[in-house]
Amino acid sequence: MLARADRPARPKKPGNCYHFGGLAGAFLQASAAAVEAHGVSKLSLRSIARDIGVSVSAVYHHFHDKDDLLKALAAAGFGELAARLDQAGARPKALAHLYLRFAVQHPARYRLMYQVFEGGDPRVRRAELEAFERFAGAAKAAIGDRRSSQDAQRLAEAMWAWARGAATRLLAADADAQAPDLEHRIDESLAWLGLVEPCL
C-alpha cells in the first residue's frame, strides 16, 4: 500500500506519470521509459532501482512485485491519457486525434494498458473509466437534449470502441508519431465518424 505522501496526486506538468508523486512517481516514470525502450519482458524492479539510484528494497516499499508495478503503470497511463483528452473539451474529432496520437507516441505503454485492463484489476478499470468519461461528456454535448441519456452513452461507447480499433490498426501498421502524414492518416481513420461530424 502506498504511503500517504505517495497516494494518487495529479502532477502539474503533462508527461509525468499521473496519480503518483514522490518516489513512486519516479519509479513509474523510469518504468514507462524502460517499457518504451525495451518492452515489458525486460522490465524488472532491480533494473528500475538501479536507474533511479536507490536500493531494490525501496521499490518493494511501494510495489509488491513486477505485476503490481505493471498495474500501477497501466493505471497511470490511463490517467495521463485522460489528462491529454481534457485538452479537447467536448469536441469528438479533437478527442479522437488526441487519443490516437497518445497511442502512436506510446505504443508499448498503450498495449500494456489494455493487457493489464483485460486482467480486471479494479484500479486499472477505474482509471480507464476516468478516460472514457471524456468521450461520454463529448457524446452528451453532441446529442444535447435531442436524444436520451442512453443514446449518449451508446454513442460514447461506439466512439471509444472505434478509437481502440483505430489505434490497434495504426499500431499494427507501425505508424510513426513523427511522420508528417500522421494527422492525415488519423483523419482517414476518422471517416466513419461522420455520425458526429455536424457536432464537431
UniProtKB/TrEMBL annotation:
Pfam family, one: TetR_N
Alphabetical keyword list: DNA-binding, Transcription, Transcription regulation
Single GO molecular function: transcription cis-regulatory region binding
DNA-binding region location: 44-63
Domain HTH tetR-type: 21-81
Signal peptide: none
Transmembrane among keywords: no
Highest taxon, organism lineage: Bacteria
DNA-binding among keywords: yes
Protein name in the entry: Transcriptional regulator, TetR family
Natural source organism: Caulobacter sp. (strain K31)
